[in-house]
Amino acid sequence: MSEKKSYGFTTTILHNDRQKPIEHGSLHKPIHTSVTFGYNDARQLASVFQGKEPGFRYGRQGNPTISALEDKITKMEDGVSTLCFATGMGAIGAVFQALLRAGDHIVSSSFLFGNTNSLWQTAAGQGVEVAFADATDVANVEAALTPATRLVFVETIANPRTQVADLARIGRLCRERGILFVVDNTMTSPYLFRPKTVGAGLVVNALTKSIGGHGNALGGSLTDTGEYDWSAFPNIAANYKRNAPAQWGMAQLRAKALRDFGASLAPEAAHHIAVGAETLALRMERASANALAVARMLEADERVAAVYYPGLASHPQHALASELFKAYGSLFSFELKDGIDCFDYLNRLKLGISASNLGDTRTLVIPVSHTIFYEMGAERRASMGIAESLIRVSVGIEDTADLLDDFRSALG
């Protein structure tokens, strides 16, 4: 495989490990469990610690297995570098931990994963002001900006109501104002969408979800796309400015979020995720097609009150999603008509598994208000448009006909 030739998404990921020497001709980067790395020349050890040459310092800040996964994700996102973390929330938390200070201001989409919403509440309690805005319209984001705004944070497709952020226009706004644009790409994955194309400076991926894809490893990542000018970011400490400005952000993130805070990915998990990533494109195509088929079937059924999926023409951001994404993703949510108990419905499903992950090969279902969004309370749920009967569905790669039959039969 030639470094010079441009290959497709899956070919690149499948053969990426082989672009660097691997012992014994292995096709996968093996699992390196060593926590520490020895050098025959003490001067080289010092040079690695000072960032003057590449190398491994200590397992908390990475190892060869994790580095190989980081390189794959960088290729997926067409970025310049990636850091991996123990979980997706660890990756988002790293942004807060390493880049923000008391008195800073951020603008976040009001349509958020429940744990991200909780994290921003923690940030607010520690002196970082958080403004929530309906990110489906750039005007709302612009109205929320202040002179202290350091970053804008959005999800590509919101979990669980599937609102689609006005990504391109928000990206232009952030570029004009010199604000870091952070996009959580978990719901679309790098196969369906690359946030770099809309000016995102940092891209979040919860590797536990579609990239790993098999529900067998936790992980998260931050990718620097090269789109943001870090010399404009006021919170970079002087000791991370030794190299070119393009490296400042990731240098501080690696030190503050991995070295100091320790949200490190385990090498065994990195290996599982790297192997799972090889089939990302195939799985996303199948799961997205399945999701569209089931969403259409439910929307046409009189016993269903509402279906939220960007692939449906009835979705408020259907046209926007069609412009942005290769497909509409594997997640949708729906509400049943009054008189049909959501718990009874879920219990009648044979294939849909009541569980709280998403992006798995298997179809997973969950009653949102009673589980993953329960803690935020009824008022906040209502402001996000989350009904008490809302069911979230993460569609897997099962045979389409079997899923259609299962979700239809459970209606009674």
Explain what the structure shows.
With 412 residues, this protein is of the alpha/beta class. Helices cover 36% and strands 14% of the residues. The chain contains 15 helices and 12 strands. A 7-stranded mixed β-sheet has the order 1-7-6-5-4-2-3, sandwiched between helices. The chain is globular, with a radius of gyration of 22 Å. The mean pLDDT is 94.
Which tags fit this structure?
412 residues, alpha/beta, seven-stranded mixed sheet, five-stranded mixed sheet, 12 strands, globular
Give the overall form: globular
Beta-strand percentage range = 5-15%
Supply the helix-strand structural class.
alpha/beta
The N- and C-terminal alpha carbons lie at a distance of: 54 Å
Write the layout of secondary structure elements.
Elements: H1 9-15, H2 42-49, H3 64-77, E1 81-85, H4 88-99, E2 105-109, H5 114-125, E3 129-133, H6 138-144, E4 149-155, H7 167-177, E5 180-184, H8 189-192, E6 202-206, E7 220-224, H9 248-260, H10 267-277, H11 280-299, E8 304-308, H12 318-324, E9 331-336, H13 342-348, E10 353-354, E11 364-367, H14 377-383, E12 391-394, H15 400-409
Parallel strand pairs: 2-3, 2-4, 4-5, 5-6, 10-11
Antiparallel strand pairs: 1-7, 6-7, 8-9, 9-12, 11-12
Helix pairs in contact: 3-10, 4-5, 4-9, 11-15
Tell me briefly what this model is:
The chain has 412 residues and is an alpha/beta fold. It has helices at residues 9-15, 42-49, 64-77, 88-99, 114-125, 138-144, 167-177, 189-192, 248-260, 267-277, 280-299, 318-324, 342-348, 377-383, 400-409; strands at 81-85, 105-109, 129-133, 149-155, 180-184, 202-206, 220-224, 304-308, 331-336, 353-354, 364-367, 391-394.
